[in-house]
Amino acid sequence: MGRRGREILDTPVEPIIQALRAAYADEWLAHYYYLHAAQTASGINAPQVASMLTARAGDELTHATRLGERILELGGTLPADWLEIPRLSNSKRIEFPRKTSDVIGILKAVLKAERSAINTYQELSRMTRHKDTVTHELSEELLADEVKDEEHTENLIGD
Ligand SMILES: [Fe+2]
Ligand SMILES: [Fe+2]
Prior knowledge:
74% helix; binds fe (ii) ion
């Protein structure tokens, strides 16, 4: 990380890198599980849910990329081994229903993951406020995206 960029941090950098790495792992897991669900969903409502999940999987990968950039800027490292991803992640896995035609069950699992992401970025925003402006702004942008994701998912479920 650039010298001046590091000097302006008003907080130890390690806890922030740790939180960013956990969020990074969460986003990769969401990307993978959403894409898997998109490709395997079956039944009458599958095409609509599949196209939503494919788009969402892309958004979560963009989130992972942006978090990765910030981790590197702060002098942290990205896990080189995929096996580290579930270990670092807050959620470990997303539990989809066994029945691939259970589209409501799939959406409920997505909703749970989106709510967990809201909690993650709310906490990251809180811990960086007035201390690490760049990470703070990133966490607010991602928080806004996850709030939209939650609402969109709720609307599809119809709750
Ligand atoms: Fe995300
Ligand atoms: Fe999301």
